Amino acid sequence: MTEQHPPFLMELKSLTRSYAGTAGDIDVLKGVDLKIQAGESIAIVGPSGCGKSTLLNCMGGLDRPDSGEILFKGQSLSGYSAKELARFRNKEVAFVLQQHHLLPQCTVLENVLIPTLVARERGGAYERALALLEEVGLGERLHHRPQELSGGECQRVAVVRALINRPGLLLADEPTGSLNEENAFMLVDLLLHLNREQGMALVMVTHSLALAERLSRLCRLHDGKLEEQP
Ligand code: ADP
User: Fold this and answer.
1) Phi, psi (degrees; rounded to nearest 5) at 132
2) DSSP assignment, residue 16?
3) CA-based, 20 to 30 A from 79: which of 30, 185, 186, 190?
4) What's phi and psi for 206, nearest 5 deg?
């Protein structure tokens, strides 16, 4: 009897994506392949403008490749209904970006709970928010507003907000881009800790090789394709 393997968490097959420019089309992704197992951590590096954000946006269902396929737990995103796609974006994947994009008029706790207002399964969200904020060292800052926190602290709030709905995949696009070196290392420590503890896969775009090398796999986006580095 052949052994049944669970599908990959996400599988990218020959993804292409071009943009129409005034001076002609720009082919950004030219056949990207990647297999992501649940709980893995993968860094994506490459020079500015090579297509890293484009790739992450496709993986998160915010953009569509022109051709190729994205499978999530064995199912093609292109076959999702509008409702399934909305659920995928809200529950299964989450983003952390270079800027934290916290709402200035809301407290730390309120900011973290915003994604749970959209999700239907809200049970235990408040307790989870408290536990995660405690874990990232912000247990004493629940009722502060973002402008009362440092840049590193705001980024940690953004990480907790991303994790609140227990995504299987966290997509981090230059999450340390606005932080100094010390805070950048601390944030990656935190992401790796949560990656191991929560079993969520982490894909992080960074231009820092020193940070990238701390993840378990390193891929370079070069000439529109991903090359796994040994
Ligand atoms: P990276 O994240 O590696 O810096 P991006 O994915 O942001 O790269 O961009 C890749 C290339 O695609 C760049 O040349 C950029 O100018 C171009 N690009 C990105 N988004 C658009 C868009 N919406 N329209 C036209 N060109 C775009």
Assistant:
1) -70, -40
2) E
3) 30
4) -155, 155
The single-letter DSSP state of residue 53 is: H
For residue 210, how far is its CA from the centre of ligand 1 (angstroms)?
Answer: 24
- DSSP label at 39? T
Amino acid at 7: P
Tell me the CA–centroid distance for residue 49 and ligand 1, in Å: 6
Q: Closest by alpha carbon to 153, among 172, 178, 126, 116?
A: 178
CA of 51 to the centre of ligand 1 (A): 6
Q: Taking CB atoms and a 6 Å cutoff, what residues make up the pocket around ligand 1?
A: 19, 26, 28, 46, 48-54
Residue 186 token pair: 């601390």
- What pLDDT tens digit does each residue of the chain (230 aa) get? 566 677 899 999 999 999 998 888 999 999 999 999 999 999 999 999 999 999 999 999 999 999 999 999 999 999 999 999 999 999 999 999 999 999 999 999 999 999 998 766 667 899 999 999 999 999 999 999 999 999 999 999 999 999 999 999 999 999 999 889 998 998 999 999 999 998 999 999 998 999 999 999 999 999 999 999 98
User: Which domains are delineated in the chain?
Assistant: 41-61+90-229 (3.40.50.300)
Q: CB of 32 within 8 A of CB of 55?
A: yes
Q: What is the pTM of this model?
A: 0.93
